[in-house]
């Protein structure tokens, strides 16, 4: 029956000689709780593995230094993941190395812990994959995989202007998720510059109207965290 949690708790109690410390009801309750914990932890581990995060980060590791312009209360509220229930988006902007990807991943990691399905994507690689999928006939299947996620992370959005194929792909992703899922976007480009990145005013309006509406915006400031780490090591 694959009751690994129960088995481990039972064997531990036997080996440690603690069985006499429990009544029968308490012992059964203890091994049932152990099984629940085991399954809960395995589910979280699977969810994190399936998300394919590029970085390892969590809420506890975020640097809330005042110079970074991170609203601690906002981030802790977002970490409760009510934004997922409300189908809200999170837009994280700032210059290179200030920790945009780290913060976005930490929120995605927390969503996994809360039981949501999350997928991380490097934006350029995602668009390249979707372009290849259109060529080999698997495009709709790839879009469906994305649509099934509760949260998707589009990391490093806007490093290159979108061509017509990528523009339409982004519109379809956004439309599928409008009022039906959340998106975390990280970008070096301020939100007002995304119109130029997307191009084609009509499509840009359609995308950004859906993306920005009911979104939380985090604009990170400060020096590059990578540069700071390098100096500290030196």
Describe this structure in words.
- The protein is of the alpha/beta class.
- The protein is built from eleven helices and five strands.
- The chain has a five-stranded parallel beta sheet.
- The protein starts with a helix and ends with a helix.
- The C terminus is likely disordered.
Features:
five-stranded parallel beta sheet, 55% helix, 234 residues, alpha/beta
Give the SSE layout:
Elements: H1 4-16, H2 24-51, H3 72-78, H4 82-85, E1 89-93, H5 100-113, E2 118-122, H6 123-136, H7 139-147, E3 151-155, H8 164-177, E4 182-187, H9 194-198, H10 201-212, E5 215-219, H11 225-233
Parallel strand pairs: 1-4, 1-5, 2-3, 3-4
Helix pairs in contact: 1-2, 2-5, 6-7, 6-8, 8-10
Quick summary:
55% of the residues lie in helices and 11% in strands. It is an alpha/beta fold and 234 residues long.
Helical content stands at: 55-70%
From N to C, what is the helix and strand string?
HHHHEHEHHEHEHHEH
Structural class by SSE content: alpha/beta
Tally the helices.
11
Mean pLDDT score: 86
- What is the rounded distance between the termini? 54 Å
In this structure, how is the largest beta sheet organized?
A: 5 strands, parallel
């Amino acid at each position: 029956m694959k009751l690994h949690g129960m088995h481990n708790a039972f064997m531990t109690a036997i080996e440690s000689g603690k069985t006499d410390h429990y009544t029968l009801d308490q012992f059964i309750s203890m091994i049932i709780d152990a099984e629940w914990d085991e399954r809960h932890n395995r589910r979280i581990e699977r969810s994190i593995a399936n998300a394919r995060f590029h970085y390892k980060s969590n809420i506890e590791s975020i640097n809330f230094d005042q110079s970074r312009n991170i609203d601690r209360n906002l981030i802790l509220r977002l970490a409760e993941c009510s934004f997922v229930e409300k189908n809200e988006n999170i837009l994280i902007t700032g210059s290179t190395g200030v920790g945009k990807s780290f913060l976005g991943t930490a929120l995605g990691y927390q969503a996994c812990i809360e039981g949501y399905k999350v997928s991380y994507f490097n934006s350029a690689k995602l668009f390249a994959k979707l372009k290849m999928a259109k060529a080999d006939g698997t495009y709709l299947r790839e879009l469906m995989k994305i649509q099934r996620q509760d949260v998707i992370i589009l990391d490093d959005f806007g490093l290159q202007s979108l061509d017509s194929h990528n523009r339409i792909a982004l519109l379809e992703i956004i439309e599928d998720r409008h009022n039906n899922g959340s998106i975390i976007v990280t970008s070096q480009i301020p939100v007002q510059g995304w119109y130029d990145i997307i191009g084609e005013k009509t499509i840009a309006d359609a995308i950004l109207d859906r993306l920005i509406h009911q979104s939380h915006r985090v604009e990170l400031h400060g020096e590059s965290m990578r540069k700071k780490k390098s100096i500290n090591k030196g």
